[in-house]
Design brief:
By secondary structure, the protein is mainly beta. Helices cover 13% and strands 38% of the residues.
Length: 193
């Protein structure tokens, strides 16, 4: 069994229609705090970040369709258009990622994403990325024809993986700027065992 997993945001439906989604899972032992702007943090989430300029918080107001066999929790969504959005979610890992080499994390992410081709996605090579909140980070890009491109940043801290899915279609420069802002302002705590 792989200790990691990663969701792929394929469609944020109801972005403007007001649909709902739920988050589940035990609350972390120590809540993380953010300050300095509009804070995005689903109730009990082991992360928070600041809302990027020009984006709207749709957390709890949208339905997120995910193609993954890995359960996620504490999802937040900020967006500027239906296919131009950023989803942040949490995956509880089965093993302590701190004891897994970066090469194994990168290879594991590539392996876990290989089934996405069955959904019509082109999956890029997983590579190490600049640390996010001082944690090891792996990135991979998914492309769905001419519809959208997603760059996913998997941030590993202990038994917690934070997936930052930056999806763009028509507003790529805005999404890139907002994604960089989230990666700079996000604060993470490890989920309790």
């Amino acid at each position: 069994m792989r200790p990691w997993g990663l969701p792929a945001l394929l469609l944020v439906s109801g972005l403007l229609a007001g649909c709902t989604s739920t988050t589940t899972g035990p609350a972390p032992a120590a809540l993380v705090t953010c300050a300095g702007g509009t804070v995005i943090q689903p109730a009990g989430a082991p992360y928070c970040y600041l809302l990027p300029a020009g984006f709207t918080d749709y957390t709890g107001k949208v339905t997120v369709q995910v193609q993954s066999d890995v359960p996620t929790s504490y999802a937040s969504v900020v967006g500027i258009a239906v296919y131009d959005s950023i989803q942040v979610s949490v995956v509880r890992l089965r093993a302590d990622s701190d004891s897994i080499s970066m090469a194994a994390l990168t290879d594991g992410l590539s392996s876990s994403m290989s089934n996405m081709t069955a959904h019509g996605l082109i999956v890029g090579q997983s590579t190490s990325a600049a640390p996010v909140d001082n944690d090891r980070t792996v990135q991979v890009t998914l492309t769905k024809g001419n519809l959208y491109t997603s760059t996913i940043y998997a941030v590993f801290r202990g038994y917690t993986e934070i997936a930052i899915n930056c999806q763009s279609s028509e507003r790529e420069p805005d999404v890139d700027r907002a994604c960089a802002s989230i990666r700079q302002t996000i604060r993470i705590v490890d989920l309790p065992r």
